[in-house]
Write a sequence for this structure.
């Protein structure tokens, strides 16, 4: 009996001691580095978490832009969005833009990285020319390409010898946005590929060259396999960014939806409902639908990456 009693009283004491020790370790770690990250968490909570929670609440109300006379409507906004033809049209335009941009930007960025990596002279100039457009603000890019696509005095038609009304014709309106976006954003993916190319061990190429592999074979069997992870990252980032396309499309068409609303994207329609039609609750519901789509894409990419890593470790 005395042994059991002693064991029964000693166990809570050891548990309390372990808990106190864990709290003490956490306190020391927070004192060492916690104060450095505390401002980030405060700002993240104020400017990200609070607006997200507020937006989620508004999506279940009929709130207007003034915030007055709003009432709880449950899932009515989501049901309306699912039956709204403009929601599906804008989503189609965003998906269409993504399908056009992502494959081209992956190939372009890889080719540009190969040129900048293997060129002998003026490497800094190649890298500057490829990356510099990415540093420009979206308003500058939109206005620049608005001038370039002018049918009479635009440089695009002048160089090609065409007379195409790029910005006023439905068949070319989205293509104009795609071209401007490729020129503007390819530099970021180019930089990722360039960094990955520099990390590939040089002895792999030397061994392959000694075995008689030509440049094309070295590219297919060494370069491309070693860039598999960075290619997946580039695709994921470009898909997420393309689904949220807004700035350049709006600026190029002077804050309009383009000819026959052919360039109205999902984000643009959300802002129109919130700040033009003043339906903040409905706009919040639409924005959370886009959030769910983007989250599904991100989680799908993580699932595929985890499955690939598990297969590689077997």
């Amino acid at each position: 009996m005395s042994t059991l009693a002693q064991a029964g009283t000693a166990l809570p004491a050891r548990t309390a001691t372990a808990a106190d020790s864990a709290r003490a370790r956490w306190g020391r770690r927070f004192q060492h580095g916690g104060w450095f990250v505390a401002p980030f968490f405060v700002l993240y909570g104020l400017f990200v978490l609070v607006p997200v929670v507020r937006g989620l609440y508004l999506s279940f109300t009929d709130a207007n832009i003034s915030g007055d006379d709003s009432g709880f409507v449950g899932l009515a906004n989501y049901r309306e969005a699912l039956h709204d033809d403009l929601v599906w049209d804008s989503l189609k335009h965003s998906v269409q833009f993504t399908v056009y941009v992502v494959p081209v930007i992956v190939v372009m960025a890889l080719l540009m990285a190969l040129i900048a990596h293997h060129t002998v002279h003026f490497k800094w100039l190649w890298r500057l020319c490829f990356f510099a457009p990415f540093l420009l603000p979206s308003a500058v890019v939109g206005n620049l390409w608005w001038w370039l696509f002018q049918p009479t005095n635009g440089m695009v038609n002048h160089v090609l010898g065409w007379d195409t009304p790029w910005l006023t014709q439905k068949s070319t309106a989205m293509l104009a946005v795609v071209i401007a976006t490729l020129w503007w954003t390819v530099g970021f993916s180019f930089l990722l590929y360039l960094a990955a190319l520099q990390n590939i061990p040089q002895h792999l190429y030397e061994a392959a060259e000694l075995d008689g592999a030509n440049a094309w074979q070295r590219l297919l069997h060494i370069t491309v396999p070693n860039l598999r992870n960075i290619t997946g990252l580039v695709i994921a980032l470009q898909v997420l960014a393309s689904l949220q396309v807004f700035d350049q499309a709006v600026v190029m068409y002077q804050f309009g939806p383009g000819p026959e609303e052919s360039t109205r994207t999902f984000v643009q329609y959300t802002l129109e409902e919130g700040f033009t039609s003043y339906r903040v609750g409905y706009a919040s519901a639409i924005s959370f639908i886009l959030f769910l789509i983007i989250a599904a894409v991100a989680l799908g990419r993580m699932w595929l990456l985890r499955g690939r890593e598990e297969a590689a470790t077997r």
Observations:
- Residues 1-11 have pLDDT under 50 and may be disordered.
- Residues 2-58 form the longest helix (57 residues).
- Residues 209 and 286 are 55 Å apart (CA to CA).
- The chain is about 75% helix and 0% strand.
